[in-house]
UniProtKB/TrEMBL annotation, chains A, B:
<feature type="domain" description="Ketopantoate reductase N-terminal">
    <location>
        <begin position="11"/>
        <end position="160"/>
    </location>
</feature>
<dbReference type="GO" id="GO:0008677">
    <property type="term" value="F:2-dehydropantoate 2-reductase activity"/>
</dbReference>
<dbReference type="Pfam" id="PF02558">
    <property type="entry name" value="ApbA"/>
</dbReference>
<comment type="function">
    <text>Catalyzes the NADPH-dependent reduction of ketopantoate into pantoic acid.</text>
</comment>
<dbReference type="InterPro" id="IPR036291">
    <property type="entry name" value="NAD(P)-bd_dom_sf"/>
</dbReference>
<dbReference type="InterPro" id="IPR013328">
    <property type="entry name" value="6PGD_dom2"/>
</dbReference>
<dbReference type="GO" id="GO:0005737">
    <property type="term" value="C:cytoplasm"/>
</dbReference>
<protein>
    <recommendedName>
        <fullName>2-dehydropantoate 2-reductase</fullName>
        <ecNumber>1.1.1.169</ecNumber>
    </recommendedName>
</protein>
<keyword id="KW-0566">Pantothenate biosynthesis</keyword>
<comment type="pathway">
    <text>Cofactor biosynthesis; (R)-pantothenate biosynthesis; (R)-pantoate from 3-methyl-2-oxobutanoate: step 2/2.</text>
</comment>
<dbReference type="InterPro" id="IPR013752">
    <property type="entry name" value="KPA_reductase"/>
</dbReference>
<dbReference type="InterPro" id="IPR003710">
    <property type="entry name" value="ApbA"/>
</dbReference>
<keyword id="KW-0560">Oxidoreductase</keyword>
<dbReference type="InterPro" id="IPR013332">
    <property type="entry name" value="KPR_N"/>
</dbReference>
<dbReference type="InterPro" id="IPR008927">
    <property type="entry name" value="6-PGluconate_DH-like_C_sf"/>
</dbReference>
<dbReference type="Pfam" id="PF08546">
    <property type="entry name" value="ApbA_C"/>
</dbReference>
<dbReference type="InterPro" id="IPR051402">
    <property type="entry name" value="KPR-Related"/>
</dbReference>
Amino acid sequence: MSGAITQSPRIGIIGTGAIGGFYGLMLARAGFDVHFLLRSEYAAVSDRGLQLNSAVHGALSLNPVQAYANAADMPPCDWLLVGTKTTGNVELAPTIAQVAAPDAKVVLLQNGLDVEDSLREHLPDSLHLLGGLCYICVHRSGPGVVEHQAMGRVNLGYHSGTAANDEVRRQAIVEEGAALFHQAGIDSQAMPNLHQARWHKLVWNVPYNGLSVLLGAGTTALMADESSRELIQALMAEVVQGARACGHEIAASYAEQMFTMTESLTDYWPSMYHDYLHKRPLELAAIYARPLAAARAAGCELPRMQALYQALSFIDRRNS
Amino acid sequence: MSGAITQSPRIGIIGTGAIGGFYGLMLARAGFDVHFLLRSEYAAVSDRGLQLNSAVHGALSLNPVQAYANAADMPPCDWLLVGTKTTGNVELAPTIAQVAAPDAKVVLLQNGLDVEDSLREHLPDSLHLLGGLCYICVHRSGPGVVEHQAMGRVNLGYHSGTAANDEVRRQAIVEEGAALFHQAGIDSQAMPNLHQARWHKLVWNVPYNGLSVLLGAGTTALMADESSRELIQALMAEVVQGARACGHEIAASYAEQMFTMTESLTDYWPSMYHDYLHKRPLELAAIYARPLAAARAAGCELPRMQALYQALSFIDRRNS
């Protein structure tokens, strides 16, 4: 009700897992009119609302939740935050088209390279597509319950839409998105180049997501052993090298910073580990195959990352 | 008794696991005077003998076995076949010195590079040290029971001793060793260069030993998946590259042959997997660290093998 009488945009959350749940709850508590599309957790969230146990913000809840089991029942949204797995992006297009207001901004809060590409061709031209890189440690501990261990920043970049060739308008849209998060107390930065921002994020995801599955280890164990530390650093260096080959300079100090930051985390098990555990498909195309293909097209081989990708592909197929 | 009245050499088996058990039993059944040194399986083998279930030779047994729990009780042996793990080579020197005849030939039936080096300095100068590369699929299924799936060839090379600078005598010793195996119906080749022979064997051991542990998979699963096949081939190519950097040419067709041969095996789980399963230390120094260091000293990085080594080191430490 409150959203209807303000000028603030209506926000839709597609996929209310750890990421969608966290950002949706924070935005709703900041006063935005937020609508949540759910599948398996619809009943639980309708009944008991959303619960966030945050090491940063404390224990927060949202109840009642504007929850929907069907996209057809949702009002048109100005901003759509997509927190589903990249492995389902193509199938998601009709849902997004259904709940998007005519000029809506769709933000894929996902890891990996070029995750927007496969979705774009299936979306109406009028929609703006953005990418969001979430620097956050969250996981789902039960239906509608999200555990937030650390951080929260979302870096946004414009992917495609009617503002693609209008730098001023493009920038305004991305800054509008960052402002939404700011109002919810969440750090957010407008990135001039989404592709580059995605390469930056890969510096963390490539080593930690994959090694958590391959070695059955969270960040604490991975950072406590000399061999895994060396392997992580070597993988990070390869991502930096791949980005450079693709024309995106990443400072060596950025990789060092990601490495040091991870040492300070309480034990964190990346999303890929949870996917593995629950026998969901791993996001290998987004995080490994596409960056490897992009680097190779630029004449750059990344042998450790390729080996990790091949090992994970074996594991993924056996796990399905 | 029979051995005492012939001119044939007395053979000692140090470490009667799958490798020592197989070759010792075959040599004993061929009429050689073979003495077995055992630890944990001494009682079982003294009582019930050795049993070989071979897909090649059928079901064979040896009973009674000239079995010993203490090296001090063994007669001096002319040939010593060492089938223990490389991880215990240094500690083995006093035992070998104790059971070796003055001019004995000591053969390390072990995988990996330079496994003789650490042992050599602790052995009497009079002993000849040789290396043996076993192309065989065997594993131990119980005390004194060996399962033999395929192959059996032993390639021998001279490492060090008083014949080191006498090519004719060196060659004669290696051929004498090969002849022993031939008399037991086992294929064996005298190799002019042990170091090169060890690099050849690594073409198989580097991918299959490590990946069996890393991916929890035997050869059938590894050869059935496109990604693991590519990874195996890439690792084999790195070993060939490392050998070349160290001055040992290995034909690309050799790697292809190892790959194709493995496709024809009934599911085989390499020794490193059994070590992992029984929480024994993995032979990482011999199979990974030393070849990597040798290649690096020759200016050659092997990134996939290095990554595999780092991952296995993490697993090995956690497993101990």
